[in-house]
TrEMBL record:
Regions that span the bilayer: 21-41, 61-85, 168-186, 621-639
Membrane-related topology note: Multi-pass membrane protein
Source species, domain of life: Bacteria
Record keyword Membrane present: yes
Taxonomic placement: Bacteria, Pseudomonadati, Pseudomonadota, Betaproteobacteria, Burkholderiales
Keywords in alphabetical order: Cytochrome c-type biogenesis, Membrane, Transmembrane, Transmembrane helix
Subcellular location: Membrane
Protein name per the record: Cytochrome c biogenesis protein ResB
InterPro entries assigned to the protein according to its UniProt record, in alphabetical order: Cyt_c_bgen_Ccs1/CcsB/ResB (IPR023494), ResB-like_domain (IPR007816)
Residue stretches making up the ResB-like domain: 21-672
Amino acid sequence: MSTSAPRPSVARELLDLLASMRFAIALLSVICIASVIGTVLRQSEPLGNYINQFGPFWAEVFGRVGLYTVYSAPWFLVILAFLVVSTSLCIARNAPKIVADLKNYKEGVREQSLQAHHHKAIGELHSNPQMALAEIGATLTALGWRARVQQRDNGTMIAARRGAANKIGYLAAHSAIVLILIGGVLDGNAMVKLTMWLQGKQLYTGSGFVADIKPEHRLSAANPGFRGNVSVTEGQRQGIAILSLPSGVVLQDLPFDIELKKFSVEYYSTGMPKSFASDIVIHDGGTTRSAIVKVNEPAIHKGVAIYQSSFEDGGSKLALTALPLDGSEPRAFEGRVGTRLPFGDQTLELEGLRVINVENMSTPDASGADVRKVDLRNTLSKHLGSGAKGDGEKVLHNVGPSFSYKLRDAAGQAREFNNYMLPVTLDGHKFFLSGMRETPAENFRYLRMPADENGELAGWLRLRAALGQPALREAAARAYARSATPDGQPQMQAQLVTTALRALTLFSGAAAQPADEAKGGLPALSQFIERDVPEPERARVSEVLLRILNGSLFELHQLARSRAGLAPAAVDADTQAFMTQAVLSLSDSLYYPAPMLLKLESFEQLQASVFQVARAPGQKLVYLGAILLIVGVFAMLYVKERRLWVWIAPTADAAGSQVRMAMSSTRESPDNATLFAQLKAAVLKETS
């Protein structure tokens, strides 16, 4: 075996190979980092979502870098291209050598060079060379070695090898990288953008019905690769998918229509969906095919996979009642989720219906277990003014349906509301809940209105309407003064009337000035005390004023019931509890940003199923690449290529055979010595 230094061309080739490997590893590292970013950061979301998450400045910076579409960003595709080219060149340059090496057993080595190996041995056999050759050949074959024999004038050389899969693993692993990268590009947004460019299509950034979108925003059914969403309402069919990109959408015509016959969902006790499935019919020309699509159980038709992604409201019919807070006549009307209705000088947008609301009904500071992150008691602790209790155990309970809507003014500004259909029991009392928030980034703040003795909202509404009428406030003040004037001190009645009327007027907001921060309720009383009462007297005056306010509101409640033709409320614990909660609720209602409440009377639920449809031509390449990668890595890490040479020459008397053997390996390890010892014992008939 020659041990001379490599020629300059071979050395240069080796350096080029090492440089290429380092370059490929560096590119692969960058791709891994970018893939982590693409996994952590949700891709292809609307730009507004990123602005809410990162702020305007960083949202724009990340957008310019392309972090919202990492897998189709130009810099990512350039790196992929370099990595594919670099890895392909490595394969092209080394594959012929590996193939040639697989065929080469190196049986032409000189027998003297065997002494230069680390693992070597020499011995004699009693058999003649021909018999020794047969015995050694059988032994090596039994041990899993593949051998080739070369006859020479002075002896016989046996060249054997084992673990040739090590070099095949190199080709498999590098080929896997190329296949996975190409498959990933074929299934990504890059192919969609390329198709749009080739077909002259544009992104759609407006709003409206899918049927109204022009053809320049639609891709044909022949598009080789896409991944989008299709929303289908029960009883309807759809054949167009929406491909979402950060700056807009593009429509994808499907080669078939999907009809949703029925959508079913089951829930855990926590409110989390346990399972949901869609019973669909695929309409392909004049043929139909029924299928059931479940999570992780897609239906595949014409190379397009239909996955169960999620579900939403499909346009449920809502029967609503508008309840004015000033006591005007209620107005009943109907609407469907997803529609807009004129609502006075505003627009009513019906956003959604939620039939099941499993909430944490323990203390308001509990963390909540509902998967939608709606901890009702925790949210109510931040409602418009009322207090709350401390920590406690979670108590999960389905509080019934709720619906959400927006009121949008002429300037386009909208407030979002979320109202519960049924009264909710909190701290042993029943309340109707109406939530409001200014922006989607905020939590809902809930106005909780106590239910009356009939479990209805009518009692609270009567009291709220009566509070806004000056004549009833004055009558309630006089009634309170008559009942609270001590016997034998009639001169105090006039003063009590004045004080009670003043308290009711402040509480109702009728005395509020434009410059006042408090427009009514308990904050207005607090502002009055801080402004007009000396500090040493504030605690006493506050206690007296609240007692007068509570008594006056009770008389106002009785007057409102009398005007409605109802019997006076009983003076008992239930009425006292109602009035205690009503005081807080009335105070909060004066800051409610709408002149009326919307109450859900009934509904007809209509579900819609959201499918993800995907045509993935690169999927098979990725699967094949994954298999090759596993095989290649396993072969390179756990399979060692070993070569063995056995030289057989006749002894001096020609009756026996002199055997000289040596072994080499691609990686030196302790098990090589053990293996060679076993070979030595088997070939030379020795025990050590």
